[in-house]
Design brief:
Helices cover about 10% and strands about 45% of the residues. The chain is mainly β. It is rod-shaped and about 115 Å long.
């Protein structure tokens, strides 16, 4: 009985195998024509070569355009765009055919670009994305573009135009598209001139009020050891001029002078030098007794300790200009950070820079 069942099972498997072989043998490879470009988007006046395959001589190809007023095609597949519109380029052989959709538009060249920013002032670590507008706005012939930084140590830029401030300094971010080049001046700094710019030149002495120290706040633009405004004016001079971060500095007389100073406190001023060379810097100060200060340029102590003589009262101001050799600063052209450092307490009204 078991032998009988075994025979029937083997016969059934054999029949299935033969049937499967028949099915496999009956399958045919689907015939088709392939084109090197599945679709086209071209400007009026452009030409392009289309190639059909297989190219082994199996088929003899015939090319045609469904709308010859939009685009024509030669017997060997060269397409020429004639006018704006849409058509299909057809390649056929016997009963086989393939269509290549073609959209034709009138070329509108890019003539110029408008950038959203030509100059940026950023704090280190801050970011800003610059936007580009094409001229004309409907331009469709757009060349390749690129972004770059002339000094990546100061600022970098992404392929999408996002500028990242890296460190203090000034550099240019450059946008190029075709033959067009635009530059964005990027100024990176922790502090900014208050009521500036403060320009030093040979034209005339420049007086810089003490109360016009930089924007930037405690620890960056100034250091005041007491957060309380002992002048009782609550920083009105600075606040009324757009600075809410400097109320700790004791400013008297709505910007007249700075008082209630202590050793170790300091104020920072950003200046721009147009005529390089030696400048005599004088300090207008007052103290009933004695005081002292020093001046630093770009973080370097250049004067050493300068004594403030007894002026007879907190409101009796005098100019300190000696010793002249110590108070002569050699300044190169460009930006400099001037720090006035209180070594001994005194009232401070202004600095004066005179080109020698």
């Amino acid at each position: 009985m078991k032998t009988k069942f075994l025979k029937y099972g083997l016969c059934f498997l054999l029949i299935c195998y033969v049937a499967g072989c028949d099915d496999y043998a009956q399958k045919t490879i689907e015939e088709n024509i392939y084109v090197n470009q599945p679709e086209l988007s071209l400007f009026v006046g452009e030409t392009v070569q289309l190639t059909a395959s297989p190219t082994d001589g199996t088929y003899q190809y015939t090319w045609s355009s469904e709308d010859p007023t939009v685009a024509s095609v030669s017997s060997n597949g060269v397409v020429e765009v004639i006018s704006e519109g849409f058509t299909n380029i057809v390649v056929s052989s016997g009963n086989l055919s393939t269509k290549v959709p073609l959209t034709a538009v009138i070329r509108i060249p890019l003539k110029n670009v408008v950038i959203s920013e030509s100059m940026l002032e950023l704090l280190p670590g801050n970011k800003k994305t610059v936007l580009i507008t094409y001229v004309p706005e409907n331009a469709n012939d757009i060349p390749a573009y690129s972004w770059s930084s002339e000094n990546p140590d100061i600022a970098t830029v992404s392929v999408g135009g996002e500028i990242t401030a890296v460190d203090e300094g000034v550099t240019n971010i450059v946008y190029r598209i075709g033959d067009i080049e635009e530059k964005i001046a990027v100024d990176i700094a922790y502090t900014r001139p208050f009521k500036g710019p403060h320009i030093l030149s040979a034209t005339a002495p420049y007086e810089l009020p003490a109360a016009n120290f930089d924007f930037g706040g405690q620890g960056t633009a100034f250091h005041d050891s007491d957060a309380t405004d002992s002048s009782g004016q609550n920083g009105n001079y600075r606040v009324s001029n757009g600075d809410n971060n400097s109320t700790a500095v004791d400013i008297e007389g709505f910007g007249l002078n700075i008082g209630w100073t202590s050793p170790g406190e300091w104020l920072l001023y950003t200046v721009e030098v147009t005529d390089e060379g030696d400048y005599l810097v004088e300090a207008q100060v007052a103290v009933p007794g004695t005081g002292s200060f020093r001046i630093e340029v770009d973080g370097v102590n250049v004067t050493g300790t300068i004594g403030v003589p007894d002026t007879g009262g907190w409101g009796s101001f005098t100019w300190v200009s000696i010793p002249e050799d110590k108070l002569t600063l050699n300044l190169t052209e460009g930006r400099h950070k001037i720090k006035y450092y209180f070594e001994g307490g005194h009232n401070f009204r202004s600095l004066k820079f005179s080109k020698k």
